[in-house]
Amino acid sequence: MRWTAFLLSAFLLIAASNAHQQERYRSKRSVDIYDIEEPVDNRLPRDTKPSHYYLEIQPFLNETKFKGRVRINVTWVRLTDKIVLNVDRDLEILHTSVKFTSLGYEPSKPEDLSRVSVIQMGKGPKKSWYTINFNDTLMDGANCEVDITYYGNMSTLDASGLFRNDYIDSSGIKQYKLQLFGTIHFLFFKLCNFQPLTCIHLIYFNKKFLSLDELLFRMFNYTLGKENFRAGIRDFLQKVPSLNPHIGPRTYFYSDFYKAMNDVANKTGYLPTGTTLSQVADPWMDHDRLPLVTVKRDYDTGTINITQKRYHREGPSKFTSYENGFTWYVPLVIISQERLNLNNTRPTVWLLSDEAIKRNKKGVNVTMNDFVSKNSFIIANPEEIGPFPVNYDTINWRRLAEFLQGPGRESIQPLTRAKLFHDSWNLAYANELCFDIALNMTLFLKNERNHVVWEPVFTMIDHIGRRIHGSEIYIKFQAYIRSLLKPLYMELSENAQPDEPSWKTHMRGLSKIFLCRAGYEPCIMEARKQFNKWLTDEEPDKGNPVANEFLCPVFKWGTEKEWEFGLQRVINFPQNNERKQSERTYLLKTLAGCPTDDYKIKRLLNVTIIEQNPKFSTSDIHLIASTLTGSATGYTTLFNFLAEHWDVVKKRFEDKPNLWSRIINTAISSFNTQEGYDKVSELYASRQEEFKSVQTIIEEALENIKRETQWSEKNFPVINAWLDKKLTKEDLLQSSQKSTNSSIPTSQMMG
C-alpha cells in the first residue's frame, strides 16, 4: 500500500502581525483548540490544555470535499469531567475516540486508564463548541489523546481554510491543486489516503513517547550509517524549495523524501538488491503492528534459523488470522559475546516482506551459518536498532542470563541490557517464552544500578503483580521484589545529593513506591508515622499534612481505624473551595484501590450505595467501581457485594444505565482463574433474564476470563516453582510477619 501524501512544512507557522490581525475573528476550518483569537465571551474553558496535535486531510477534488482526522494531546490543568473543543459548524463529525495515557501526576496503571470512558459528546446548540463528557472528574496532570474524524467542504464563503484551485499544465490539461489560506497552528500537516491502518503517525514531542515515524528514522539511521543518513536529509532539505513549484512553496510528496534517501542508500549497498527505502518503510507503516523475530541456533548443524511473525502481546484477537500474514523488511544486526561493540551497524542479514516474494525474491525467513562459538551467546537487534522484540533458543537465553550476572555485564551497553530484560518479559507475558527464563533474566538486577536498565523493570513489576494478585504466589512475588529493590533503594538513599541528576531522584522515588506496594516494613512504619500527624490534628478537615506517597501504604497495611479516618475526611471534605477537589479525588481513589482486606471495601460500598450517603456523587461511585479492578481483593469484593445485594443495587441505579453497566463490567471482567469463571457463570445463570441489557458485557467477560484462566494455569505453576527455588527462608519469614507488624497500635508510631 502506498501513501499519496503531501508532507507540508513540519514547522510551527507564525503569520505576520498584520495577517494575524486580519485573521482574528474569522471562523476556523478545522478543530482549533488554541482558540485565543475568539471574542472573550466565546473562549473555550481553560480546564484542559493542548500540547501537540496532528492533522491529516484527504482531499476529494472533484467533489470539492475533504475528509480529515485530527489527533490532539490534551493535559488537564484543573479539575473537570469534560474537554471542550472549537469545531467549525461546516464540519461533520464522523467518529471521536479518546485514549488516556495518564490520570494525574502519579503513575497510572493500564486498568485505571481503561476505567475512564466517554459518556456523551456532541456540538452545542449555539456556540461552535464540541464537548466530550467523561464518567469521572479528572485531576490536573491527567493526559489523553483525542482522535476525531470528520468531513468538510472546500466551497465555502470563508476567507480562510482549504480550497481547490485549478491550473493548466505543460500539456494543456486542466489540473487541480489545493491551497491553504490562514494561520496554521499545526506542528505537522499531512494529506494522505484514508485506508485501514494507513495513517498511523503519532507526533508526540515528548521523550516518553515515540512515534513509528521516529522509530523508523532511528532504524534507518543505524542501517544506513549515521553520516549517510544525515547526508540524505541534507540533500532532501536543499531540494525542498524547488521540488513542486506548481503546487506551492516548500511542498513535497512522500516519494520526494524517499527518493533523496534512496540515492544515498544505493551508494551504501546496505539495502537488499533491488529494494528501495520506501519499500522497506511501507510494511512498517501500513500494518500498524510490529514483528516478532525469533533467532534459534542449531548447535548440531552450526546454523541459525531466523523467522518473523506478527507479535501478539495480549494474545489472539478477532483479527489474528488476517494479521498473522503480515511480514516486514527487517534489518537484523547480530553481535556476539566476543564482539559486543556496535562500531558497524550494517545489517548482518535482511528478512524480507512478502512483497519481495512477489518480485521472485526469497528471504521472509532465513537460515544462515552460525558464526559464533557454541559456548558463546549472540544478541540480535542490539540497542533496539529496529522496533521489534527478539526471541532466542533456550541455551542462548541461559548464557545471556549467566553473563549478565557476571563481572562483564557492563560490556553490554545499558540500552541493550534493558532490551534483553524487556524482551524476555514481554515474550513470557505473550506466552512466547517460558516464565522461568524471564525470571532468570531478573537475577542480574540485584547488582544493576543503571537507570536505563531499571526503567522497564517497574512496568514489569506492575503488570505481573496485577496478573497474579490474589493467588498464593503473590506474597512470594512481593518478597522477591523487595529483595531486588531494597539494595537499589538503600544505595540511592544513602548517596542523595541536593544537586543530583533528575534520573536519580526519579529512580529513588519509583523504587520507594514499589517497595511500599510490596510491603517493605520501614516504608509502612514511616507512612503510618506521618499519617499519625493528620490523625491527631485537632482540625483535620482544614488540610492534609501527609504527602500523597504515604496514603496508600497506610490504607493498604494499616488499621481499620486509620482507613476509617480517611473515609471521614472524604465525607467531611470542605465544599467552599478552600481546598482543591483533586485532593478529595485522590484520597477516595486510595481508599478504594489500596486495601487488601475486604472489610474496608465492603464498608465503602455500603456507605456509597446501600446507605446512599449524599456526600458521594454518581461520579464518585464511577471512580470507586473503576478503581476496584486494580486488585483481586477489590473486584472480588465488588462481585460478592453485587451478588448479595443485586436487587438493591439494580433499583438504586435503574435511572442510571451507564453506571449500572459499569458496575457489572467492573465486577465480572477481571477474574483470571477457573474459580472466578465459575462464579461469574453461576451469577449469569441465576440472573440470565436481567443480564439481557448487558448481554455483550457478560459474553465478552466470560471469554476474557477463559483466556486469562488458560494463561494462569500455564504460568502460575512455573512462577511458583521458580520463586520457591530462589527465595530464602528469611524472605518468606518477612512476608509472614508483615501482616502482624502492620497491626501495631497507632500510638506506637509517634515519635
Per-chain topology:
Blueprint: E1 6-8, H1 17-22, E2 48-60, E3 65-76, E4 80-86, E5 92-103, H2 110-115, E6 118-123, E7 129-138, E8 142-153, E9 161-168, E10 174-181, E11 188-191, H3 212-224, H4 226-239, E12 252-253, H5 254-268, H6 277-287, E13 291-298, E14 303-310, H7 320-323, E15 330-332, E16 334-336, E17 349-351, H8 354-358, E18 366-369, E19 378-380, E20 390-392, H9 394-404, H10 414-429, H11 435-440, H12 451-468, H13 474-494, H14 502-517, H15 521-535, H16 551-557, H17 560-571, H18 581-593, H19 598-610, H20 618-627, H21 632-644, H22 646-652, H23 657-668, H24 674-686, H25 695-726, H26 729-741
Parallel strand pairs: 2-11, 13-20
Antiparallel strand pairs: 1-11, 1-12, 2-3, 3-8, 4-7, 5-8, 6-7, 9-10, 13-14, 14-18, 15-17, 16-19
Helix pairs in contact: 3-4, 4-5, 10-12, 12-14, 13-14, 13-26, 15-16, 17-18, 18-20, 19-21, 20-23, 21-23, 23-25, 24-25
